Amino acid sequence: MADLHVNLSGLQLSNPVLAASGCFGFGREYNEFYPIRQAGGIMVKGLTLEPCAGNPTPRIAETPAGMLNSIGLQNPGVDAFLSNELPWLLSQEAAVIANINGHALEDFEEIARRLQGAPGLKAIEVNISCPNVSHGGMFFGTDPAMAAEVTRRVRKHTSLPLIIKLSPNVTDITEIARAVVSEGADILSLINTLLGMAIDVKTRKPLLARKVGGLSGPAVKPVALRMVWQTAQAVDVPIIGMGGISSAQDALEFLMAGASAVAVGCASFVDPLAIPRIIGDLNAWLDREGFAGVRDVVGLALR
User: Fold this and answer.
1) Which domains, ranges and CATH numbers included, belong to the chain?
2) Residue 134's pLDDT band (boundaries 50, 70, 90)?
């Protein structure tokens, strides 16, 4: 059997296939299909300082090759996560990564401070790239100076491995990547959703109440793959690649493009067993092709 273990700047995981934030909740529903500890890690639903109801409905729309969402960071708040969700996740032996969001710079700092020392928490993923909120959100991730400032502030308040989640809605993603790495990012995750919309031709109105939302699913994979490939050549930190991954072949493309791990999002909506299926198929491919471990595949397309 090939060795699937990965070490991402101190974030040690049993395999490189994670559950992407926003597509897995806090794992309770998926645990009814398989033991969620099988995932390499679980990036939990995005957390804000206070409970958030999210955007008005409708906030989900299908597209021919993916989905649009404008959920708006609905979540119970960081304190409820620490009291209710984290203990349950740890009881399932899951590797937990907290995804944090803020409407202001101070929000990111305070959430990081509250998470510092939380028993069992593996890492923090900072979402500076959400396109579905009116204040903060993607604004922090499209300006290199602001992205760097968020990273610097969070870094002051946590000793955990720090992941910064990058937005594809920029001209040059490597500029943002360099900026956050310079201020202490240990790992990068990319990409978040692409900004998009859909219109109902019968009503002559946008399908989403907020008009625009984040596009995810198979349609974004070529864009995500290109951005991972570019970023892997620009910075010297591990990358978690995401965007349209629904098979082991998809995962391998991201690994060969320079990602050290991958995260599965929309595919879990279509197939609740997507993550364990991809892990099994990835292991089988590595064995069949004679690779001793997943690390041997990382960056092959860059050489």
Assistant:
1) 6-55+71-195+216-302 (3.20.20.70)
2) very low
